[in-house]
Structures are given as structure tokens and as C-alpha cells.
Amino acid sequence: MSKKNKHKEQEAGKKLDTQHEEMDAGTVMDDKKVEEQAAATDNQPETQGEAPTTDPLAEAQAQIEELKDRYLRTVAEFENFKRRTQKEKAELIFNGSEKTVSAILPILDDMERAAANANKTDDIHALEEGWELIFKKLLKTLEGLGVKKIETQDKPFDVDFHEAVAMVPNVEDNKKGKVIDCVQTGYTLNEKVIRHAKVAVGQ
């Protein structure tokens, strides 16, 4: 082989070695880039797919505002209820008085007529009957309103219904501790004593 050909072969071999070295260097550089990119990816914060964090202070403030709103609503409702109850109570008292007066007015009319006729007749018996009828009508009307007379005759003395204004000594044994006489009639309204009967009691 001539020197010229040997020289060409040597030159070609050097080129091949240079190309292999460049390829190896490029491969190393590519591997480094891949590793750097992977490391950068690992170091990046994982923000995707995670729920955003909430501020505890903001949550507490929101709860306070909600509770405050509920409290104000409750207070307003209670005030409305109180005003409504007071109004209903006042109306009940007013209507109760109206009912009582309306029931008694017819009896007042009877009394006016009886008083007017008293000067026109000399029949005392007729006048007595007229006044007795008016009195019974009044008692019946009061009973319709819940008013009842407290019975006292021969009843055992009861402090819940009677008020002793006198003591009668030397009575029979079966009358001791019992009502002997009623000085003033007592009444109940819907089973509640509104006036005790004033009585004399045997002892």
C-alpha cells in the first residue's frame, strides 16, 4: 500500500473517532438535560388538583356574622311576640268588660221600669214580686258570666270561703264550728273567690 493511501485511511479513522466522541458527548449532554428537567419537575410545588387552603380567621368571622344575624332575628321575633301578646291581653280585658256590661244592661232596664211603676200602684205584693223576679234574673245572668254565690247555711266554717265576723256561744253540739248566720254574701268567679262570705260561727 502506498503512503498516500495509508495517510487517507488514518485521516478517515480520525474523523470516525471524532464523530464517535461528539456523539458520546451529545448523549451525555442529553442525559444531563433529562436529569435536570426531571429534578426541576420534582422541585415544582404540586398545585394542580389540590384544594385551595382557607383562612381560619375568615371562617371564624363568617360564623360570628351568621350567629349575630340569627340573634338579631330571634330578638326581633320575641319583641313582635311580646307586643302581640300585650295587645291580645288588652283586647281580652276590654271585650270581657263589654260582655259583662252588655249582659247587665237588660236588668238595668227592668229596674228602671220597676222604679217608674212603683209610684203608679199601691199593690205592695206586686212590687215585691217584680223586684224578686229582677233579682233572680240578675243572679242567673251572673251565673252565666261565671259568678256563683257561696253557700253558707249550716256549712262547716271554711277559711277558704268564709270570713268569721262574730262567734255565737252556747250553741248545740251539732252547730259548733258551723255557720250560724251570713252577714254578707260571698261570691266566686270561675271557681275563684272574689269575695269571702262574712259569717257568724257557732262555738
UniProtKB/TrEMBL annotation:
Segments of skewed composition (Basic and acidic residues): 8-36
Pfam families recorded: GrpE
GO CC, any one term: cytoplasm
Keywords assigned by UniProt, alphabetized: Chaperone, Cytoplasm, Stress response
InterPro entries assigned: GrpE (IPR000740), GrpE_CC (IPR013805), GrpE_head (IPR009012)
Molecular function per GO: adenyl-nucleotide exchange factor activity; protein homodimerization activity; protein-folding chaperone binding; unfolded protein binding
GO BP, one annotated term: protein folding
Cell location: Cytoplasm
Residue ranges, compositional bias (Polar residues): 40-51
Region (Disordered): 1-59
SUPFAM superfamilies: Coiled-coil domain of nucleotide exchange factor GrpE (SSF58014), Head domain of nucleotide exchange factor GrpE (SSF51064)
Family to which this protein belongs: Belongs to the GrpE family.
Record's function text: Participates actively in the response to hyperosmotic and heat shock by preventing the aggregation of stress-denatured proteins, in association with DnaK and GrpE. It is the nucleotide exchange factor for DnaK and may function as a thermosensor. Unfolded proteins bind initially to DnaJ; upon interaction with the DnaJ-bound protein, DnaK hydrolyzes its bound ATP, resulting in the formation of a stable complex. GrpE releases ADP from DnaK; ATP binding to DnaK triggers the release of the substrate protein, thus completing the reaction cycle.
Summary of subunit composition and partner proteins: Homodimer.
PANTHER family linked to this entry: GRPE PROTEIN, GRPE PROTEIN HOMOLOG, MITOCHONDRIAL
Protein name: Protein GrpE
Biological source species: Hoylesella timonensis
Gene name for this UniProt entry: grpE
